[in-house]
Every structure is written in structure tokens, then in C-alpha cells.
Amino acid sequence: MKIDNLPHNWQQLSAGKQKVYKKFLQKADKNKVLKQLPGLHEDAFSKIDCLQCANCCKNYSPRFKTPDIKRISKHLRMRESDFIEKFLVVDEDGDFVTNTKPCPFLGIDNHCSIYDQRPSDCHRFPYTDEDVFIKRIPLTLKNSTFCPIVFFVLEKIEKI
Question: What local confidence, expressed as pLDDT, does residue 3 receive?
Fold first, then answer.
């Protein structure tokens, strides 16, 4: 399935429901939510094709932690310092992030050229199958405005 299986205005719906989502996540039985997440995560990924979207790669950057930099620079046969100089900057939080948007590793077909070596943040995104979803509510809310998977999971979980 593709993103077009969601309402065409899913991003506006999500933006309009931020207070509802926040209230739900703050008051929800965390254990109950955590038990539901793996199944909802799988359901969302079976219905929504990330390659049709790639909003995360087009508009945001993951953090590149030291192990990520080591692994990716080795994969690209670059010195770590050259990799950092060519692709990364330090953001306001002191983290390494990409120096361009979209991500320099995103192809025009929305495939990642370093997919098997991608940063851990990319591997874990959109966190819909882990406790980050409920522990870092501001992150979940932000992600729901650009990631159809997060929107899908929030819509389903608030009805449980």
C-alpha cells in the first residue's frame, strides 16, 4: 500500500490534533500503549510505503553518533574527518547532522545509498515500536506532522 491510503490531508489532520495526541499520550496507560506498539508498528509498515514519502530524509537529519560516523566513513572509504567535513555540521544541540536537506544519501528514487550502514537514528525511526514513542512526547508529536507512519499509529492507538 501507499501513502495515498491515508486521508489526503493527513498532515493537516495531524497538525490539528496535536493537543489531542499530547493529552492522550500524557494520560495513557504506558504499559498498555507499549504492548500495543509492536503490532501497530507492523500494521502501519504493511500499509504505508516509506519509499513513497521519504519526508524524514527530505526535511530532517538524524544524529550521526561516533559509531555511525566510523561505520559510514569506513563504508565510503573515507577518513572520518573528511566524511564530517563533506557531509556534516554540528547543530544547536551539539550533535552531528547532515549539512544539506534533503539528506545527501537520499536518491531521486527515495532509496538510501548507505541504507545498510545508515545511522542508528535512521534505523530506529519513526520509533513507533519502542518506548521513545511515549517517553519523548514532543518528538512523537513533531514526527506525526511529517511521518504518515506516526500519524497512523497515533490514530489507531488513541482508539484502543
Answer: 62
